[in-house]
């Protein structure tokens, strides 16, 4: 675990140096870099891995009180600059998925690939408990009480939300996030962040309409078929609506909301193939302008953006949609 001071505030992050491609892992609401430790253990040792605590989470100070996804994306950019990463593949879970999509929108020239795991920001639906916490007065006191209850009581309280995940690890992951809210600063950040992205109708941010701007951006979408927080159907609908030719959408049949924690080997395989078998995205203004205006003529007339060479031999560079394992099903579009 490392710490650095940026703009006068301490930022905590996990870094595993490597000589190969850079991968930045962004946790979800109420989480920390710890959410990624099992996944990191399964990633190739040459990957340069960076897993920050978002502002106000874990060991990172809250900063100036802006808990929007845009502010989180800027914080990640600042950390990348500070540690010397020009660009990276960004992988985000839940709220972190919304953050990395916002990062790609704000900093496309620093984005090589995107990975979305049980991602927020792809539709309105979200667990009723999060809508209640984000909108009902007195939520802070309720969270304080729930966070200080014995773990067994917490697991009982969470059972209605996690029973169909059929995974002890799933319940443990959610309980771990709840117990962090015993800290008043973490609880404040949790509520302010939740209220910035969720209201009584559900999620306030829907990035699907902007995904066509990244038609050439290699993308991985992974979700659990038993996710009690963000409905799997929402992920499926977003995957179809995005119509990204370079995207891969994978549903893990026995996973819930935390596939990277409950199925780290499977998710690591997908992330590895995304990185190993695709070229980094290269931003160009003509394609971007065409996406903004809806005019494809300029993009079609523009020369292709320069592409970096593949890092694997031709025999090893399989397309991501050729991945196959026994416990997930793959959804792809041509």
Give a verbal description of the structure.
- By secondary structure, the protein is α/β, with parallel strands linked by helices.
- It has a single domain (2-126, 204-331), classed as 3-Layer(aba) Sandwich (Rossmann fold).
- Helix content is 40%, strand content 17%.
- It has 13 helices and eleven strands.
- It has helices spanning 37-42, 69-83, 95-106, 128-135, 139-148, 151-162, 168-179, 184-197, 232-242, 259-262, 264-277, 285-293, 296-301, and strands at 2-6, 9-16, 22-26, 48-52, 88-93, 111-117, 198-199, 202-203, 219-224, 247-252, 328-331.
- The protein has a nine-stranded mixed β-sheet with strand order 1-2-4-3-5-6-9-10-11, sandwiched between helices. The chain has a two-stranded antiparallel sheet with strand order 7-8.
- Helix 9 (232-242) links the parallel strand 9 (219-224) and strand 10 (247-252).
- Helix 4 packs across helix 8 (184-197).
- The longest helix has 15 residues, at 69-83.
- The chain starts with a strand and ends with a strand.
- The relative contact order is 0.13.
- Residues 21-263 form the AB hydrolase-1 domain.
- GO terms for molecular function: hydrolase activity.
- It holds the Pfam family Abhydrolase_1.
- This is Hydrolase.
- One of its GO terms (cellular component) is membrane.
Helix-strand blueprint:
Blueprint: E1 2-6, E2 9-16, E3 22-26, H1 37-42, E4 48-52, H2 69-83, E5 88-93, H3 95-106, E6 111-117, H4 128-135, H5 139-148, H6 151-162, H7 168-179, H8 184-197, E7 198-199, E8 202-203, E9 219-224, H9 232-242, E10 247-252, H10 259-262, H11 264-277, H12 285-293, H13 296-301, E11 328-331
Parallel strand pairs: 3-4, 3-5, 5-6, 6-9, 9-10
Antiparallel strand pairs: 1-2, 2-4, 7-8, 10-11
Helix pairs in contact: 2-3, 4-8, 5-8, 6-7
